[in-house]
Design goal:
The structure holds two protein chains of two kinds.
Chain A (H helix, E strand, L loop, with lengths): L1 H21 L1 E5 L2 H11 L3 E5 L14 H9 L2 E4 L9 H8 L11 E3 L32 H18 L4 H26 L8 E2 L5 H6 L18 H14 L3 E4 L5 H11 L2 E4 L12 H17 L3
Parallel strand pairs in A: 1-2, 1-3, 3-4, 5-6, 6-7
Helix pairs in contact in A: 2-5, 3-4, 5-6, 6-10, 8-9
Chain B lengths: L1 H16 L1 H14 L4 H18 L7 H20 L9 H20 L5 H10 L7 H20 L1 H9 L1 H6 L4 H42 L3 H25 L4 H20 L8
The chains are: A alpha/beta, B mainly alpha.
Chain lengths: 303, 275
C-alpha cells in the first residue's frame, strides 16, 4: 500500500511538474504586445502584461509584483526603440533573470524587423522628450502587427520546441485574419484619405501612414511638455484655416486640453485607446476595428 | 492674435476675480503663522478626489467634489483641535505630517486605479489655462458668498486670528469659530485647486499677504496692497506665459515670487522696515 501510494504520488507530481513547465512564462511590457502574444501562444503561455491599457507607456510605475514576474519569466517581449527606456532597465536589474539578458533567446525585442519612422537626424533636448531611435509606436499599423506576430511565433518556438508547430499554426490564423480585416479597414477609411486628425502626442503616425490620414498637428508643443497658450492659439488658428474637425486623445492624456481647443474650433473629440485591453477591445483586431470604425463614423458625421 | 485672446480671456478673468478672497484669507493665515495649512488642506482635498477616481467618478463630477469637501471638513476638524499652545509640539509639525501622509495615501489609492497618475500630477500644477467659464462663475459665486459671511462676522473672525488671547478673555468659543474658519477656508482652497492647482493656490494665499505685511500695518492697507500685488502679478504672469511661451500656472507663481523680491528690495532701504 505504501509503495503504491508513493509511486502514485510520484507519478502525480511528475505529471503536474510537466504540466506546469509546459506553460511558458512570458512577460510583455505593453498590452498590444500582450494581445499579439496571446493570439500566438494561447493557453500554452502564462502571460503577464506590465503596463495597463490606460497607462502612459513611456512612464510605467514599477510594482513589487513585476520583479517577481520578471524573475520567473522564460521570455520578455518588449517594444524596444526606447519606448520602455524610462522604466524597464531598473526592473530588469532588480529581477536578476539571466534568461532575459540582451542577446538571449528569452529577450524578444519587437522593434527588430520593423522599419521605424522619424529617426531623428539631430538629437538633443531642444526638441523635447524625443525618441532617439525613431517613433516607437509602430503597432498602430496593422501590417507591423503581422511582422511582430511572426517574430514572436519564431522566438517562442525556439524556447518551446514542442509547441512550435502550434505557434506557427496560430500565426497562420492571425495572418489570414489580418489580411482579410486590413482590406476591410482600408475600404472603411478610403473615402477620408487625406483628411488630417489632430492628436495630443505623436503616437499615431504609423496608423496615419497606413490609412492615409495626415497627423502632424499636436496639442503637445514638444513631446512630454504641457501645452502653452501660444501653442494652443497656433493649433486653433491652423485648425480653423484648414477646417480640421477631429481631435483624438488617449486615456492618459488631458482631455480638457482637447475639449478647450474643440470648443474654439467646433471640432469633435475622439477617444482613441492607446492599446487593446479595454472593454470591447480585448484583442488586437477588436482594438484596431474600434479605432477604424469610430474614426470613419466621426468623419462621416462631419459636413 | 484673436485666438490668443480667446484662449486667455477666461484664465484672465479667473485671475482677476478669484484671488481677492484668497488674499484676505492669506492675511489671516500669515497672522496665525501656520503657512502650510493651505498646502495640507489642498492635499486632503486631493485625497478626496483620489478616492472619487478610485470609485470611478469623473474628476469634475459633483460626487468627486462632495468627497473632496468631506475630506476637507475632516481636515479642518483636525487642524481646529490641534491648535496647541505648547511649543514642544508646534502645530506646524502636525500640519506638515498631515500633508505628507495624505499625499502618500493618495498615491496608494491611485496605484489601484487605471488612470490615477495623471490626475495627481494635474492637481499640483493645475490647469488655469483650461478653465471653463462655468468653473470661473461658479467659483466666483462661492467666493462672494464666503466673503459675505466673513464680512458679517468680521469682528469674530478677525479676533480669533489677530487677537486670540483677547478673544478668549472676552469669552468667545475659539474652537467653534476656528472650525468655521478652517471649514470655509478648506472649501475655498478645494475650489481653487481644481482650477489653478496646489502651487497656484498657495502662492495667491501667501505671497500677496507677505508683501503686504512688509509694507503696511493696518489691515485695510494690507488688503489693498495684497490685492494690487495679486492682480499685477497675475496679469504679468499671463502675459509672460503668452509672450515667452511658458506654462501659465507656473508663470504666475514666478511672477508672484518676483513681486516679493521687489517688495523686499523696496523695503530694505526704508527706515523702520520689517527687515
Amino acid at each position: 500500500m505504501k509503495t503504491f501510494l508513493r509511486n502514485f504520488l510520484t507519478v502525480l507530481l511528475g505529471i503536474t511538474a510537466v504540466a506546469a513547465s509546459a506553460r511558458l512564462h512570458v512577460v510583455a511590457t505593453t498590452p498590444d504586445l500582450g494581445a499579439i502574444a496571446a493570439a500566438i501562444g494561447g493557453d500554452d503561455l502564462d502571460l503577464t502584461v506590465l503596463a495597463k491599457p490606460t497607462e502612459d507607456p513611456h512612464f510605467v510605475d514599477a510594482k513589487p509584483s513585476y520583479l517577481v514576474k520578471l524573475n520567473r519569466a522564460d521570455a520578455l517581449i518588449e517594444g524596444g526603440a526606447e519606448l520602455e527606456a524610462g522604466w524597464l532597465a531598473p526592473l530588469l536589474e532588480g529581477a536578476r533573470n539571466p534568461r532575459l539578458e540582451r542577446g538571449k533567446p528569452g529577450r524578444i525585442i519587437a522593434a527588430e524587423g520593423i522599419a521605424l519612422l522619424e529617426v531623428p537626424a539631430v538629437l538633443d533636448r531642444s526638441q523635447g522628450d524625443i525618441h532617439a531611435s525613431g517613433n516607437p509606436h509602430f503597432l498602430t499599423d496593422p501590417v507591423n502587427a503581422g511582422i511582430v506576430a511572426a517574430h514572436i511565433a519564431r522566438a517562442l518556438g525556439e524556447l518551446d520546441a514542442k509547441s512550435a508547430p502550434e505557434f506557427q499554426a496560430n500565426l497562420k490564423k492571425f495572418e489570414t485574419e489580418l489580411q482579410a480585416r486590413l482590406a476591410g479597414w482600408q475600404r472603411q477609411l478610403a473615402p477620408y484619405a487625406g483628411r488630417p486628425v489632430v492628436t495630443y502626442h505623436n503616437y499615431w503616425i504609423y496608423f496615419g501612414r497606413r490609412f492615409q490620414l495626415p497627423m502632424d498637428l499636436f496639442l503637445e508643443p514638444k513631446p512630454g511638455i504641457p501645452p502653452t497658450p501660444a501653442h494652443l492659439a497656433g493649433v486653433i488658428t491652423k485648425m480653423r484655416a484648414d477646417h480640421l474637425r477631429l481631435i483624438a486623445v488617449q486615456p492618459y492624456q488631458n482631455r480638457k486640453t482637447a475639449e478647450t481647443v474643440a470648443g474654439h474650433t467646433d471640432a469633435v473629440v475622439l477617444d482613441w485607446p492607446s492599446f487593446p485591453g479595454g472593454p470591447g477591445t480585448e484583442s488586437y483586431f477588436a482594438w484596431m476595428d474600434y479605432l477604424v470604425t469610430t474614426t470613419a463614423k466621426a468623419f462621416a458625421a462631419q459636413p | 492674435m484673436l485666438e490668443t485672446f480667446q484662449i486667455m480671456q477666461w484664465p484672465l478673468l479667473a485671475c482677476l476675480l478669484l484671488p481677492g478672497l484668497l488674499v484676505y484669507l492669506g492675511l489671516h493665515i500669515v497672522e496665525r503663522e501656520i503657512i502650510f495649512v493651505d498646502l495640507s488642506l489642498a492635499q486632503v482635498a486631493a485625497l478626496g478626489t483620489c478616492l472619487g477616481i478610485l470609485m470611478h467618478y469623473e474628476a469634475d463630477s459633483w460626487e468627486s467634489y462632495a468627497l473632496s469637501l468631506g475630506f476637507t471638513l475632516v481636515g479642518a476638524g483636525i487642524f481646529t483641535f490641534t491648535r496647541t499652545k505648547s511649543h514642544r509640539v508646534p502645530q506646524e509639525a502636525l500640519i506638515g505630517i498631515v500633508y505628507v501622509v495624505t499625499a502618500a495615501l493618495g498615491i496608494l489609492l491611485l496605484s489601484r486605479s487605471p488612470e490615477g497618475n495623471e490626475e495627481l500630477r494635474r492637481t499640483l500644477i493645475g490647469e488655469v489655462l483650461l478653465v471653463t467659464p462655468a468653473q470661473v462663475l461658479r467659483t466666483f459665486g462661492l467666493f462672494v458668498a464666503i466673503g459675505l459671511v466673513h464680512w458679517f462676522f468680521r469682528a469674530k473672525f478677525l479676533a480669533i486670528s489677530f487677537d486670540p488671547d483677547g478673544a478668549t478673555a472676552r469669552g468667545m468659543s475659539i474652537h467653534w469659530w476656528d472650525f468655521a474658519f478652517y471649514a470655509m477656508f478648506g472649501w475655498v482652497v478645494t475650489s481653487f485647486v481644481q482650477i489653478g492647482g496646489v502651487l497656484l493656490v498657495f502662492s495667491f494665499l501667501i505671497v500677496p499677504a507677505v508683501c503686504a505685511n512688509f509694507l503696511a500695518e493696518k489691515l485695510r492697507s494690507r488688503l489693498l496692497i495684497g490685492w494690487v500685488t495679486a492682480t499685477v502679478a497675475s496679469v504679468a504672469g499671463l502675459y509672460a506665459s503668452y509672450a515667452i511661451d511658458l506654462p501659465t500656472g507656473a508663470a504666475i507663481v514666478c511672477a508672484l515670487g518676483l513681486a516679493l523680491l521687489g517688495t523686499i528690495a523696496a523695503t530694505s532701504f526704508r527706515r523702520g522696515s520689517v527687515l
